[in-house]
């Protein structure tokens, strides 16, 4: 009992007073030594029941013979991310005999899929796939078993454990999933460096601002990537296996998960398999890059994936292992990921060519808004090849090397060239043609869960699968492949699975942002959606060229565009192009969530000068539409009466 322990600590002199005793109690809670019996409270000087947590009860890092925690640096040779000579990524296992301790299959895959194994990546591994992790003894039955520890899986596990459920989470590779390890976090750190390089390289804009910069902008790509790895490692503590086991009370299993019945999951390591029985389960296995069926492409991805060879085919899976900049980079795909990385690599020094089948980039966005990104990317130096009718083949010339990159030849046909082939030479090819769900290794048939290779796990609006005990969240089941969407899908699953909730995915109002320059953010419906549905609407726009803050910042390229219902001003959708569009869109999303009309936004005082004031200006425009001729006459009569 909390109050009894406080009294005991003070009486024995272990604590100076009750406040000190409570502080000590909360240290024990934070270290996972003590927890409230239902994990509803921190340690308090009250009549609340607490219990000691058995060591390794939720999973733990194995101890060495000397009693130390097992750590990756103990068995891996040291590698410096700042080596004077180029570091070569290695994705195969030839170096394994040099290890002081053998690795099991999952440990080997997790460790050797990262490069270089420098202090930052070792810190990352210690958090997201600890060496020698000891899986806990499974409970007789769990309230919730989560398969996959990406954003959606982690939020599901944390949310369910937070309301007192018995929870297990299973991860085969890296806690944190794509967002932490190969997606949002490392890409935004990379883009930040690229933006700074572009800022100093734009001497025309600097001159406009009264700054003369005569020096040369030098990009140390190895150091850029070192910072990317350090940022990722620093953030990884939030998704760490030990944090979920010790602080959140989740049973963390590292192993390969597959269903063996409608109510159980098998977790297998090299040594043995463990059965986890559940009342409810959630599939959160995410997705992986889709490699298009271009002759030679998959062979190159396999042949140049180990030893002393650079990866010739880049995807999000291996892009952030680079320590040397590809001098010439092809990007296949003109969507958000392709455009973010194409612009970033061009700014960091690559010569980038973007290939696409359509006649423009980012087809989901309004054409004029996407054109703003296109024009800026062209100004940065990116070359575009549109109208690709067929990618014929990719071959590598092993005799020609640019540094240690092989020379690649991409052959393709264009719509306006008939049968003629065009040949382009590069050092690496970045594939950004979409993602596919991770469903094939889960034995979903045994769980009576319907799925297909394109859509992934099939769910209803409450995120239930064809098995009512099993739910799904994130990229494995949703076309909205964003971390923040997986987060809120997880919240729906916790309510619906554990508390007979009826919350629906369709109730979510989902914003998104592409982190190019300018950023492009959107929420709700596009004008084309509204037109196709025959929905009456009015559109209000404010160009940033007319926004005082944007003018002061010398950043006039951008727009706020809001679609609203006539009469009540209910916001139906909005797009924003601006340097920080991702931050601006949240005000509009809040208004849509709470039914605040566009006219009401006009009454919200915004600091001056800000780019967000462009949103308020759209509200002013809407209110002016309500000032009809009749209203004007009435107002003039009222003014006469007030004299």
Notes on the structure:
The protein is of the alpha/beta class. Helix content is 33%, strand content 22%. The strands form 8 sheets. Strands 5, 6, 7, 8, 9, 10 and 23 form a 7-stranded mixed β-sheet that branches. It has a 5-stranded parallel β-sheet with strand order 12-19-13-14-15. The longest helix has 18 residues, at 184-201. The protein is globular, with a radius of gyration of 28 Å. The termini are far apart. The relative contact order is 0.09. Mean pLDDT is 89; it is low at 80-100.
In short:
With 643 residues, this protein is of the alpha/beta class.
Write the layout of secondary structure elements.
Blueprint: H1 2-11, H2 18-30, E1 34-36, E2 50-52, E3 60-61, H3 105-112, H4 119-128, E4 133-134, E5 142-147, H5 151-162, E6 167-171, H6 177-181, H7 184-201, H8 203-208, H9 221-235, H10 241-247, E7 251-254, E8 256-261, E9 264-268, E10 273-283, E11 287-289, H11 297-303, E12 313-314, E13 328-332, H12 336-348, E14 351-355, H13 367-380, E15 383-385, E16 388-402, E17 405-414, E18 421-426, E19 428-431, E20 435-437, E21 451-452, E22 456-457, E23 470-472, H14 483-498, E24 511-514, E25 519-524, H15 527-533, E26 538-543, H16 548-552, E27 559-564, E28 571-578, H17 581-593, H18 598-601, H19 613-625, H20 629-642
Parallel strand pairs: 5-6, 5-10, 6-7, 10-23, 12-19, 13-14, 13-19, 14-15
Antiparallel strand pairs: 1-2, 3-4, 8-9, 9-10, 11-20, 16-17, 17-18, 21-22, 24-25, 25-28, 26-27, 27-28
Count of distinct strands: 28
Q: Quick one: overall form?
A: globular
Mean pLDDT comes to 89
Distance between the termini: 75 Å
Count, helices: 20
Q: What is the makeup of the main sheet?
A: 7 strands, mixed
């Amino acid at each position: 009992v909390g109050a009894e322990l406080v009294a005991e600590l003070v009486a024995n002199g272990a604590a100076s007073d009750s406040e000190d005793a409570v502080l000590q109690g909360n240290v024990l809670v934070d270290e996972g030594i003590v927890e409230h019996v239902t994990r509803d409270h921190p340690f308090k000087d009250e009549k609340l029941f607490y219990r000691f947590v058995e060591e390794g009860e939720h999973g733990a890092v194995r101890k060495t013979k000397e009693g130390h925690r097992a750590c990756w640096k103990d068995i891996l040779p040291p590698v410096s991310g700042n080596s004077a000579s180029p570091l070569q990524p290695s994705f195969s296992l030839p170096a394994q005999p040099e290890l002081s301790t053998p690795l099991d299959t999952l440990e080997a895959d997790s460790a050797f899929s990262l490069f270089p194994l420098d202090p930052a990546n070792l810190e990352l591994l210690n958090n997201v796939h600890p060496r020698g992790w000891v899986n806990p003894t499974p409970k007789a039955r769990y309230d919730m078993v989560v398969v996959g520890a990406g954003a959606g899986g982690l939020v599901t596990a944390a949310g369910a454990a937070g309301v007192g459920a018995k929870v297990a989470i299973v991860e085969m590779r890296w806690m944190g999933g794509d967002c932490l390890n190969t997606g949002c976090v490392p890409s935004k750190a990379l883009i930040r460096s690229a933006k700074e390089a572009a800022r100093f390289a734009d001497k025309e804009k600097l001159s406009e601002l009264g700054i003369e910069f005569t020096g040369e902008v030098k990009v140390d790509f190895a150091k850029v990537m070192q910072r990317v790895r350090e940022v990722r490692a620093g953030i990884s503590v939030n998704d760490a296996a030990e944090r979920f086991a010790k602080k959140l009370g989740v049973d963390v299993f590292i192993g390969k998960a597959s269903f063996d019945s409608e109510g159980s999951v098998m977790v297998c390591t090299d040594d043995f398999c463990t059965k986890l029985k559940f009342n409810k389960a959630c599939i959160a296995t995410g997705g992986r890059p889709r490699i298009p069926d271009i002759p030679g492409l998959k062979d190159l991805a396999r042949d140049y994936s180990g030893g002393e060879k650079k990866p010739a085919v880049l995807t999000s899976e291996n892009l952030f292992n680079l320590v040397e900049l590809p001098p010439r980079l092809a990007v296949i795909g003109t969507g958000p990921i392709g455009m973010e990385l194409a612009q970033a690599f061009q700014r960091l020094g690559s010569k980038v060519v973007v290939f696409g089948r359509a006649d423009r980039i980012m087809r989901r966005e309004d054409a004029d808004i996407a054109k703003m990104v296109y024009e800026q990317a062209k100004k940065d130096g990116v070359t575009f090849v549109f109208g690709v009718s067929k990618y014929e083949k990719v071959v590598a010339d092993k005799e020609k090397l640019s540094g240690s990159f092989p020379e690649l030849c991409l052959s393709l046909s264009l719509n306006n060239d008939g049968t003629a082939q065009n040949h382009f030479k590069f050092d690496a090819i970045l594939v950004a043609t979409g993602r596919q769900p991770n469903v094939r290794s889960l034995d979903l048939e045994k769980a009576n869960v319907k799925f297909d290779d394109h859509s992934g796990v099939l769910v209803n609006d409450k995120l239930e699968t064809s098995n009512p005990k099993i739910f799904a969240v994130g990229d494995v089941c949703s076309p909205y492949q964003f971390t923040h969407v997986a987060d809120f899908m997880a919240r729906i699953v916790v309510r619906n699975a554990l508390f007979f909730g009826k919350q629906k995915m369709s109730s979510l109002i989902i914003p998104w942002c592409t982190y190019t320059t300018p950023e492009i953010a959107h929420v709700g419906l596009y004008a084309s959606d509204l037109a196709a549905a025959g929905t009456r609407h009015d559109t209000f726009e404010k160009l940033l060229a007319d926004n005082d803050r944007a003018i002061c910042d010398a950043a006039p390229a951008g727009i706020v565009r809001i679609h609203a219902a006539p009469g009540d001003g209910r916001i139906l959708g909005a797009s924003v192009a601006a340097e920080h569009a991702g931050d601006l869109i949240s005000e509009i999303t809040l208004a849509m969530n709470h039914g605040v009309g566009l006219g009401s936004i006009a009454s919200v005082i915004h600091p001056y000068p800000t780019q967000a004031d462009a949103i308020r200006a759209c509200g002013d425009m809407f209110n002016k539409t309500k000032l009809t001729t009749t209203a004007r006459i009435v107002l003039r009569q009222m003014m006469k009466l007030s004299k």
